[in-house]
């Protein structure tokens, strides 16, 4: 009986439902890929992989860069309100924000395609309180038969 209870408790602790939840401040500490949920939508899951390889370094919560922290609805809301096209443009072409924080083109990874950058941005939006626009974008990425 104790083994079954321990196994159930361990499974509960490891369940995806206890993974990242978007909050006004975002997750505590530096956010790494393993702390973020895996989206059910393929385009967003692809963006998650790109985020882990490139974007995590700044958007995981590195305060020195000034990048908006993933899962922080408070800092992402005004950005999401600008629309996906603006955010995609900033991420693909680079951007210097009002506080002189720089978003380097393609997150500093020149090997990323436009589609990969867009997927990473959509994933960040999805994980930061903007699930509706991210899911709407992801629907446009489904190949038509």
UniProtKB/TrEMBL annotation:
InterPro entries: Cyt_c-like_dom, Cyt_c-like_dom_sf. Gene3D superfamilies: Cytochrome c-like domain. Residues 1-22 form the signal peptide. Residues 42-128 form the Cytochrome c domain. This is Cytochrome c domain-containing protein. It holds the Pfam family Cytochrome_CBB3. The keyword Heme applies. Keywords: Heme, Iron, Metal-binding, Signal.
């Amino acid at each position: 009986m104790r083994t079954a209870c321990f196994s159930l408790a361990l499974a509960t602790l490891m369940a995806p439902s206890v993974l990242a939840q978007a909050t006004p401040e975002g997750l505590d500490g530096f956010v790494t890929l393993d702390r973020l949920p895996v989206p059910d939508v393929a385009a967003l899951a692809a963006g998650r992989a790109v985020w882990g390889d490139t974007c995590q370094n700044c958007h995981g919560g590195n305060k020195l860069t000034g990048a908006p922290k993933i899962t922080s609805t408070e800092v992402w809301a005004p950005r999401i309100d600008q629309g996906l096209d603006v955010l995609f443009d900033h991420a693909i072409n680079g951007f210097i924000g009002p506080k002189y924080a720089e978003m380097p083109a393609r997150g500093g990874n020149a090997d990323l395609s436009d589609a990969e950058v867009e997927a990473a941005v959509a994933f960040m939006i999805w994980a930061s309180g903007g699930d509706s626009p991210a899911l709407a974008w992801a629907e446009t990425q489904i190949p038509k038969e």
